[in-house]
TrEMBL record:
This protein's UniProt keywords: Oxidoreductase, Pyruvate
Highest taxon listed in the record's lineage: Eukaryota
Keyword presence, Oxidoreductase: yes
Name of the protein in question: Glyoxylate reductase/hydroxypyruvate reductase
Listed InterPro entries: D-isomer_2-hydroxyacid_DH, D-isomer_2_OHA_DH_cat_dom, D-isomer_DH_CS, D-isomer_DH_CS1, D-isomer_DH_NAD-bd, NAD(P)-bd_dom_sf
GO CC annotations on file: cytosol
Family from the record: Belongs to the D-isomer specific 2-hydroxyacid dehydrogenase family.
Length: 331
């Protein structure tokens, strides 16, 4: 039996999320939804602060900063926050916990898409594909040359994974058939169960830096990992090594990365994430041939983005019913 619309819990959705997620919310008959009806511009902060007043639940994406100011603006009705992302560095977990607000997020459903894109970015960077297509169409393609556009191959290489979770494992599983010789990883503590899936050896941060031919960053952005990829790391890496980041831009010190790339301290970098996003087109990193920059698209497949929206919607509905969410963050 449907309750009168006006007595249903109020939900604010901060973005025009993919259709399946919106359908899940709308057809539940459980909530009344208000939506920032655009996918092209994020809801302006002032508008968001107004819109959240008195809502019971909020569905957001990673462009919204969920902090004390926003939670105060929402007020005591707010019981559930559901983010359509696996990352949660845009959320003040402490503030959410203090207010007893339950938090849903979207791990797992994006693992395949992110791992696939990470491999694509790694190969694009190591085999210099962007430079190569540019040369081919702008007249740089002369005779076949013996060392022209040479890069680095995965066969016989050592691949380092910084932050071994679901995504790191999925990346390694996809790279293994390229005849990688050895996987190594570092994390706050060894993760033997995950590591055994890909036969990876636990090493120190320094050892990972020194031994990796390819280094893939797959950790969460936390106060501990903020700018942990800095000159200290790059100076220990081989000058033939490739650095790949599909986690969060904040784990990298971009000035140090620029320095490492422009002086040949490392061979190349592939980034799907930067600070800020979008990265201004006049940013020095864009001037480097050995830096490939993508606009945060690792989870951008139709299947995955729809699955993320449905999971975020279901987390929210379950949370409002007081039931366990499918994917809930422990606060
Ligand atoms: C996430 O989910 O955190 C990604 O960055 C976007 O899919």
């Amino acid at each position: 039996v449907r309750r009168e619309m006006s007595s249903l819990p109020r939900v604010y959705v901060t973005r025009q999320i993919p259709p399946e997620g919106l359908k899940t919310l709308r057809e539940s008959g459980q909530v009344q939804c208000q939506l920032w009806d655009s996918d092209d511009v994020p809801v302006p902060r002032q508008e968001l602060l107004q819109r959240v007043k008195g809502v019971d639940a909020l569905l957001c994406v990673l462009t919204e900063k969920i902090d004390a100011e926003l939670l105060d603006a929402a007020g005591p009705n707010l019981k559930v926050l559901s983010t359509m992302s696996v990352g949660f560095d845009h959320l003040s977990l402490e503030e959410l916990k203090k207010r007893g607000i339950r938090v849903g997020y979207t791990p797992d459903v994006l693992t395949d898409s992110v791992a696939e894109l990470t491999v694509a970015l790694l190969l694009t960077t190591s085999r210099r594909l962007v430079e190569a297509t540019h040369e081919a169409k702008t007249g740089g393609w002369g005779t076949w040359r013996t060392l022209w556009l040479c890069g680095y191959e995965l066969a016989n290489s050592t691949v380092g994974i910084f932050g071994l979770g679901r995504i790191g494992v999925a990346i390694a599983e996809r790279l293994a058939p390229f005849k990688v010789k050895k996987f190594i990883y570092t994390d706050v503590a060894p993760r033997p169960e995950l590591a055994s899936l890909i036969n990876a050896e636990y090493v120190s941060f320094d050892e990972m830096a020194k031994r990796s031919d390819f280094l893939a960053v797959c950790c969460a952005l936390t106060p501990e990992t903020k700018e942990i990829c800095n000159k200290d790391l790059f100076s220990k890496m081989k000058n033939t090594s490739i650095f790949i980041n599909t986690s969060r831009g904040g784990v990298v010190n971009q000035d140090d990365l620029y320095e490492a790339l422009s002086t040949g301290q490392i061979a190349g970098a592939g980034l799907d994430v930067t600070v800020p996003e979008p990265l201004p087109t006049n940013h020095p990193l864009f001037t480097l041939k050995n830096c490939v920059i993508l606009p945060h698209i690792a989870s951008a497949s139709f299947t995955t983005r729809n699955a993320m929206s449905v999971l975020a919607a279901n987390n929210l509905l379950l949370g409002l019913r007081g039931e366990p969410m499918i994917k809930e963050l422990k606060l």
